[in-house]
Amino acid sequence: MSFQAAITNLVLKATNDGAELVGETEVDQMSVSGWIEKAQAEASKLKELNETLTPKTYIATNYLTAADVALFGALYPVVAGLQTQEYYALPSITRYFDHIQSRPAVRSAADALQQFPVVTFQLENAPSVERKAAEPKQKKEKAPKQAAPEAAIPAADKGKKAEAAPPAAEGEKAQKKDKKEKQKKGENKEEGSSKPKKEKKPAAPAADEGEPKPSMIDLRVGHIVDSECSLSLIKHPDADGLYVEQIDVGEETPRTVVSGLVNYIPIEDMRDKMLITVCNLKPANMRGVKSFAMVLCATSKEGREGGIELIQPPEGAKPGDRVYFEGGDYEDATPLPQLNPKKKIFEAIQPGFITLDSKAAAWVNPATQGVHKIRTKDGVCYAPTLVGASLS
């Protein structure tokens, strides 16, 4: 078994044993996923990692997560081979590693796999870590303002100076008076003006007003993130029928998506899969995990028992590619940022989704019976085998 596979097994075992290690919030989940991806690379940069860990108890959040399990696994062969003086020189890594290996979830998983035995450290004679206090910033002293020398003022003018200058208050009053008079003159000009006032333009109607259209739905090509040492695809910890996937839809970070496909599509057929996602549904909480998109699937005309398949993008499609409906009314339309759940736009459009005899995915307009294939710039999206299937 490769070292990478050993780390993956450790992460999966710790997670499957019931430890909620994925992350409690969306931000935490992204941080955990990011650290899992780079754990092995970071474990090779010991000095930098030692500095990173100095203020931390856990690497990705303020509690134990799968990121710590992955980083512990990645560090294991390095730390286990260090001599006493070498791990003395890395106090933060030593402290972190010793803490993580003793956590029940990690220890239980390591023992069950009969790998990653406990590493012992001789810390009794470890040198104390010196922490230099930051030097206090010195405030710059402002130079005192120099008064004009009296010698520069003629003696004869010293007494006249106060008399000649008008009081500041009187000058301000005069300025305010002039300003008011100018404003009054301006108002009188406007009253006598024959120019009509500009009318305000009416506000543009909301984009989701009127009849629901398929082009209001934001469909994109997605890709289930492929990484051995990652929680890119797991079974939901609290729901036997749900997968939790990390799907790349062309954004900076993958979206967490929950799909009820465990009983219909084996996990090995989900890994590294290209698919179509609905990206503008309102995020939904699925048994404690927030889902930020929906996977578009074809369901057999005989029902779920007849089979469910992932709708596939055409060859050459990339994550984030726009998916649209053929036809002049829809091809160039911009989807809504988010579908209003109260208006049930997706629910109104969905009954027209179908796979054709060619297995191409399409929407049939119920009013005109016009067929609008679902496609990207590279070609038509399709179901692998199902004909006459409904899409949802």
TrEMBL record:
<dbReference type="InterPro" id="IPR010987">
    <property type="entry name" value="Glutathione-S-Trfase_C-like"/>
</dbReference>
<protein>
    <submittedName>
        <fullName>Nucleic acid-binding protein</fullName>
    </submittedName>
</protein>
<dbReference type="InterPro" id="IPR051270">
    <property type="entry name" value="Tyrosine-tRNA_ligase_regulator"/>
</dbReference>
<dbReference type="Pfam" id="PF21972">
    <property type="entry name" value="Arc1p_N_like"/>
</dbReference>
<keyword id="KW-0820">tRNA-binding</keyword>
<dbReference type="InterPro" id="IPR002547">
    <property type="entry name" value="tRNA-bd_dom"/>
</dbReference>
<dbReference type="InterPro" id="IPR053836">
    <property type="entry name" value="Arc1-like_N"/>
</dbReference>
<dbReference type="GO" id="GO:0017102">
    <property type="term" value="C:methionyl glutamyl tRNA synthetase complex"/>
</dbReference>
<dbReference type="InterPro" id="IPR036282">
    <property type="entry name" value="Glutathione-S-Trfase_C_sf"/>
</dbReference>
<keyword id="KW-0694">RNA-binding</keyword>
<dbReference type="Pfam" id="PF01588">
    <property type="entry name" value="tRNA_bind"/>
</dbReference>
<feature type="compositionally biased region" description="Basic and acidic residues">
    <location>
        <begin position="170"/>
        <end position="196"/>
    </location>
</feature>
<dbReference type="GO" id="GO:0000049">
    <property type="term" value="F:tRNA binding"/>
</dbReference>
<feature type="region of interest" description="Disordered">
    <location>
        <begin position="128"/>
        <end position="215"/>
    </location>
</feature>
<feature type="compositionally biased region" description="Low complexity">
    <location>
        <begin position="145"/>
        <end position="156"/>
    </location>
</feature>
<feature type="compositionally biased region" description="Basic and acidic residues">
    <location>
        <begin position="129"/>
        <end position="144"/>
    </location>
</feature>
<dbReference type="InterPro" id="IPR012340">
    <property type="entry name" value="NA-bd_OB-fold"/>
</dbReference>
<feature type="domain" description="TRNA-binding">
    <location>
        <begin position="219"/>
        <end position="324"/>
    </location>
</feature>
<feature type="domain" description="GST C-terminal">
    <location>
        <begin position="1"/>
        <end position="121"/>
    </location>
</feature>
